[in-house]
Structures are given as C-alpha cells and as structure tokens.
Amino acid sequence: MTFKSVIFLTAAGILLAACQSKTYKLCGTADGMADGDTLYLTTDMQEGTPQATIIVHDGRFDYKGESDSICLAMIYSAARHEINAPFFLEPGEITITLSDVPGLSRVAGTNCNEQWQRLNDSVMVIGKEINLIAEHIYGNNVDMEQQEKGMATIEQLNQRFSALIIRTIEENIENEFGYFLLTYYPEDVIDNETRARLIKQLPEEKQKNTPHSNL
User: Fold this and answer.
1) In whole angstroms, what is the distance from residue 54 CA to residue 189 CA?
2) How far is CA 180 from the centre of its chain?
3) Cβ atoms within 10 A of the Cβ of 155, count?
4) How far apart are CA 182 and CA 176, in angstroms?
5) How many CB atoms lie within 10 A of CB 24?
6) What does pTM read for this prediction?
7) At what angle do helices 144-171 and 192-199 cross, to 10 degrees?
8) How far apart are alpha carbons 200 and 163 in whole angstroms?
9) What is the per-residue pLDDT across 51-96, written as a single tens digit (0 to 9) for each?
10) 175 vs 44: CA distance, rounded Å
11) Residues 98 and 72 sit within 8 Å (Cβ to Cβ)
12) Residue 116 φ/ψ, nearest 5 degrees
C-alpha cells in the first residue's frame, strides 16, 4: 500500500523528543468495519509496513504500546484503503474515530494530536476550494481568461496554506508539534528567511538539532 496518496504530510525519518513516559494507548471507533476486522498500525509513512495488528470488536478498538520518540504514524485498513487516520504516536491516551468516508476520520486526546486535527480541519477547507477550482478550469471548456483567473485564485489559496502553516508553527514554536512542522515543510511552503526567523525562536536544544540551522 502506498501512503503518498492518502496523507498530505509524510514524516519519514522525523522523530521528536519523547516525554519521560513512553506509554501510549489508542482508543477508537471504526465505522463500516465488522467484528473481527483487522487494522494495522505503522510509522512507515512511505510504504505502510505494519508494526502492529489491531482487531476490531463491536466497532471499537484499543491498543497499548511504548515509543522512545514522538513520530507521525497511521492506523489503517488494508482491505479498505479509505479507512485510515494519520496521527502522532506520543505518550498518553490517543482517541481515534475512523470513518469509512475519506477525510472524515479524526484524532484527539494528546497535545500533538489536538493540534494536528485542528490544522487538518483548516487544510481540508483550503484543499476543497483548490479542488473545486481545478475541476472547473481543467474539466470544462473554459477560455484562457477563465483559466488564468482560476490559477491566480489557486495561487492565493496556496499562499493561505503557507500562512496557515507558519502561523501554526509560531503558536507551537516551543513544543514538538511546531518543531515537526518547521523541519518538515520545504521552501515552497516556508521560505528560507521565514524559516531562519522561526529557528531562532526554537528552544536552544532544538536549534542545534534542526537540519536547517545553517540558514
């Protein structure tokens, strides 16, 4: 299974400092899944190689484990690819609502996952606007003027997306979620000048570890 098509962020190789506790617990519901159906847990955001198998009982599932680092993970159904939820694997109780409608699964319970869901909600709004415009200008016989107008609007929406990411980083600059966003996104989302400014706002130990510290 290729995960590039079902998640707008990938975090291969990005690990964040864990808290003293290493224990996490997943508690969730799974719409559209029958008793005995299988879910898989992975931190391999490229290929989805399973690290744990979770069985659904009465529409619910739970799983306990330990992790040395905070990282992006995914729970998914191999039989039904639309049932999935990317989330942050971190100490604490993580609640997951799996929907059989693409894009409607939700995560909550811990700091990174609360922030992650809030960001996803905003990104989904922007993404839907972009898709509607793209479908109109590429799926219909529109003239050049309409295409140019549509592309200009898409560029404005992309700028909104970049501004959203930067604002979210600023709001979380001292925690793991802000560090993840700052070190993940490429230059077309966070320009080098802005990244350098944000790196200076990181806690000192994270400034030393960021791969962009030489900006």
Assistant:
1) 36
2) 10
3) 10
4) 10
5) 22
6) 0.78
7) 10
8) 18
9) 999 999 999 999 999 887 788 999 999 999 899 999 999 999 999 9
10) 23
11) no
12) -60, -45
